[in-house]
Write a structure and sequence with these properties.
About 40% of the residues lie in helices and about 10% in strands. It is built from twelve helices and six strands. The radius of gyration is 21 Å and the shape is elongated.
């Protein structure tokens, strides 16, 4: 494991320790928890500590960035979470796709709470929900789409929300935004890789060429047709991943003095195009690995 990956595995900024404390303190104020996950890596984008932290509260899972994920995989994940007792939706918070189902789902999940409020003579009492998720899963985009005038700060960079904020989203619902929180150690290095691939951890922490080699190995083995379509390269299925990176750089004319291939520039391009969807709808985690396959 490279030094850069080791550093990433132990990465735990101080504000994230504060976030865990804020979540714990605020939990008693809310009726339910909305958990945003990245539809491309649902399990790796879920803080393994969060279930313990929010135990006892109804949970709604939003599989965000579903427009970038394999729809067959997303369907499996929704069924998986529903079978575990969590309501789940596939959404795209930037475009708003799927979010029209959110308010009705909240009221369905909290129907017992609503009935209890009515019996206590408090019909229409505001429902309060907490939004949680690791950095860059789209919490601020979600709140901005749902919000009635108030806007959360949005930036395509991991970890920009720094404090708890309340937002009115209409329909008698208020949401508490929380800063994204990672956990102190990734036991499985593959989890750290997947978070890095999707932009859930800052690129500055990594050796981007090493990371690209790991990503291209997955693409070679599981989505080779996407490499062929996007980069117009052939005869790479028996190549080592670094050779594929060189092929991409050469095909794109990324050369430096002496005709050497600028593999760093090629690596950055690969991730830019993956994260923007230009490589197609690619899921890196499936409920049933045997059902893995490219979307139509």
């Amino acid at each position: 494991m490279s030094d850069s990956i080791k550093q990433q595995v132990q990465w735990f900024p101080g504000h994230m320790a504060k976030t865990r404390r804020l979540i714990g303190e605020s939990l008693k104020k809310v009726d339910a928890v909305v958990m945003l996950l990245d539809a491309r890596i649902p399990e790796s984008s879920k803080n393994p500590e969060i279930d313990t932290m929010i135990a006892g509260k109804p949970v709604i899972i939003l599989l965000n960035k579903a427009d970038l994920a394999d729809p067959n995989a997303t369907k499996q994940w929704i069924e998986y979470y529903e079978n575990k007792g969590c309501a789940a939706l596939d959404v795209d918070c930037r475009s708003g796709k799927g979010l029209n189902k959110f308010r009705p789902l909240v009221r369905e999940v909290l129907k017992d709470k609503i009935r209890h409020n009515e019996e206590k003579g408090m019909p229409g009492k505001t429902l309060r929900i907490m939004v949680v998720g690791i950095p860059n899963t789209g919490k601020s985009s979600f709140i901005n789409r749902m919000g009635a005038g108030s806007k959360a700060k949005v930036e395509d960079r991991a970890g920009v929300t720094r404090s708890n904020q309340w937002f009115v989203i209409g329909g008698g619902i208020e949401m508490l935004d929380t800063p994204g929180v990672l956990w102190h150690k990734f036991e499985d290095p593959a989890v750290g890789d997947k978070l890095a691939f999707t932009g859930g951890v800052k690129d500055q922490i990594f050796d981007m060429e090493t990371l690209a080699v790991r990503f291209l190995k997955i693409m070679r083995d599981e989505y080779p047709e996407r490499l062929e379509e996007r980069y117009k390269i052939t005869d790479f299925r028996q190549c080592e991943p670094y050779e594929i990176l060189e092929k991409i750089g050469r095909k794109r004319g990324m050369l430096i003095s002496g005709g050497e291939i600028d593999t760093l520039r090629a690596a950055i391009t690969v991730f830019d195009e993956y994260r923007s969807g230009k490589l197609g709808r690619i899921t890196l985690e499936w409920v049933n690995e045997n059902s893995r396959g490219a979307a139509l």
